[in-house]
Amino acid sequence: PILYSYFRSSCSWRVRIALALKGISYDVVPVNLLKDGGQQFSAEFKAMNPMQQVPALKIDGITLSQSLAIIHYLEDTHPNPRLLPQDPKKRAQVRMIADHIVSGIQPLQNLSVLKQMGEKKTEWAQNCISSGFQALEQTLQHTAGRYCVGDEVSMADLCLVPQVFNAERFKVDMAPYPTITRINKALLELEAFKVSHPSRQPDTPAELRA
Fold it and tell me: Principal localization (predicted)?
């Protein structure tokens, strides 16, 4: 497999965690979202992923984009360890939390949106993340065990950790979100979350390396 990734992309990080958890080795092709006006806009990359976004994964003779679609494919083809619970209610909760983050928070503070916000970009990102986290904190108080849904790592957790990383980057006050903070801390102790961290990627700038 070949993963087209950017070290700080939260969508790419979700996929890196899934690959690590499932023990799938892969090669990384870095796509720098800032350099050369954004390498994702090159004709070569656009031919592979018309959305001009990372991640993209070449695997088993196909090219997939969209992080959750990629993770679902990995779940279907490499079922262990499981990232979706077997219980239908818990399964729905995992998908709900994942969707909450990947649809309701992350796109609103994504690079393409922030570029349009100009000087207000930090304030915009903080507001989008805070309002999303207020709802997420309430949801997690009903679903969480050690992790987002019970005590097993799930697709929801793969979405949570990169989003908290974004929140910290934009200096969001995390004090009102003790459940999110607790779960994030527990997940960052796991090896798959460590090796996939933005500070440990081949394209991580020297000053940001762990």
Answer: cytoplasm
- Residue 177 near residue 130, CB atoms below 8 Å: no
Pick the CATH number of 2-80 from 3.40.50.12780, 3.30.70.1530, 1.10.490.10, 3.40.30.10: 3.40.30.10
Q: Of 30, 38, 22, whose CA–CA distance to 56 is shortest?
A: 30
* pLDDT surpassing 90 at residue 111: no
Between the two ends of the chain, the Cα-to-Cα distance in Å is 25
State the Cα–Cα distance between residues 146 and 76, nearest whole angstrom.
25
At residue 99, what is the residue type? D
CA distances from 5 to 67, 120, 184 (A): 11, 27, 22
Residue 31 is which amino acid? V
Q: Give, for 62, the enclosing helix (H) or strand (E).
A: strand 62-65
Answer whether residue 112 shows pLDDT above 90: no
* CA 139 to each of CA 68, 101, 148, 156: distance values in angstroms, whole numbers, following the listed order: 20, 12, 9, 12
> Which CATH number does the domain 88-193 belong to among 1.20.1050.10, 3.90.1150.10, 3.40.50.450, 3.90.45.10?
1.20.1050.10
Phi (first) and psi of residue 192, to 5 degrees = -60, -35
Mean pLDDT of 82-99: 98
Would you give the DSSP letter of residue 145? S
- The pLDDT value recorded for residue 92 is 98
Query: Which DSSP state fits 110?
Result: S
Could you tell me the pLDDT band of residue 109, with boundaries at 50, 70 and 90? very high
